[in-house]
Design a protein that fits this description.
With about 280 residues, this protein is α+β, with helices and mostly antiparallel strands. The protein contains eleven helices and eight strands. α2 (about 35-45) packs across α3 and α2 runs antiparallel to α4 (about 80-90).
């Protein structure tokens, strides 16, 4: 018995000493967390979409605590409600959030364009794009296999007649779909806007006409008619500068006179604005 105790007692003593050292070290070397961090993190929606420009909600919360001057209105999914809470915690003036919704810049459905081959591969836009740029005649258009649908945390996107469609009343403006789309034809637009270009084709007009009846042919008619010079044709496709697009005297002049109808008037009132109106 004595030999056993002789072996065990030193081990126990060493264990106690090591435990004490670890406890002391944990106290002395502990990194103090800003008491505001858990409060801020609790306010954020947890979408981890990166729309704020930081690496998820934790990154944004950390920036607010550590970087003085970080705006409290960067969380688009959280909208004004989150911005108000963050302003109170940080003790700064409330900043309005520009609510946004996703817009698909393509309307080339099965009635306006056609496939150039039958695709039987992996049901993914990213996979289909690897095979001759996708099955559609228009290599710039929606591939229609739903990568954005699968990525959307709100289930606000569906594929209708071969083209992705966003339901603005469900979209929180997280922007995950814009990063997921391999064609890069989805963008975020302020939900107060009313005019949208539903085409992304950059080919010349004659080529575009052959592949899609809805495609922009770069005729520049909209560019000439816009009184605010808010529309320009870039790489053969109309692009709207929303900072210049205002309610002109004849609202929707560009959409009403678009040769192919690819510029459309649309109600983009998103889920946040609808909640505010209620």
């Amino acid at each position: 018995m004595e030999p056993i105790l002789t072996a065990v007692i030193p081990v126990v003593i060493i264990g106690v000493i090591c435990a004490a050292v670890l406890v002391i070290a944990s106290k002395l070397m502990a990194v103090k967390e800003d008491e505001r961090f858990p409060k801020i993190r609790e306010c954020l929606p947890g979408a981890n979409c990166g729309a704020c420009g930081f690496a998820g909600c934790d990154g944004y919360a950390k920036a607010l605590c550590e970087k003085e001057g970080t705006p409290t209105n960067l969380c688009v999914p959280g909208a004004d409600a989150v911005s108000k809470q963050l302003s109170e915690i940080m003790g700064v003036e409330f900043e309005d959030v520009i609510e946004q919704v996703a817009v698909v810049h393509c309307a080339g459905d099965c009635e306006k364009t056609q496939d150039k081959y039958d695709y039987y591969g992996i049901p993914s836009c990213s996979a289909a794009k690897l095979l001759y740029g996708g099955k559609g005649s228009c290599t710039y258009g929606c591939l229609g296999l739903g990568d954005c649908v699968n990525a959307c945390p709100q289930k606000a996107i569906t594929v209708v007649n071969g083209v992705a469609r966003v339901n603005p009343t469900e979209c929180i403006g997280c922007g995950i779909c814009t990063k997921t789309c391999p064609q890069k034809i989805i963008s975020l637009v302020a939900d107060v806007e009313k005019v949208v270009v539903t085409c992304s084709n950059k080919d010349k007009g004659a080529v575009t006409r052959k592949v899609c009846t809805n495609g922009c042919i770069g005729c520049r008619k909209c560019e000439r008619l816009c009184p605010n010079k808010a529309i320009t044709v870039v790489d053969n496709c109309a692009v709207i500068d929303y900072s210049k697009c205002t309610d002109c005297p004849d609202f929707g002049l560009c959409a009403k006179n678009c040769t192919t109808g690819c510029i459309m008037l649309s109600d983009l009132s998103g889920i946040h604005r609808i909640k505010e109106e209620k």
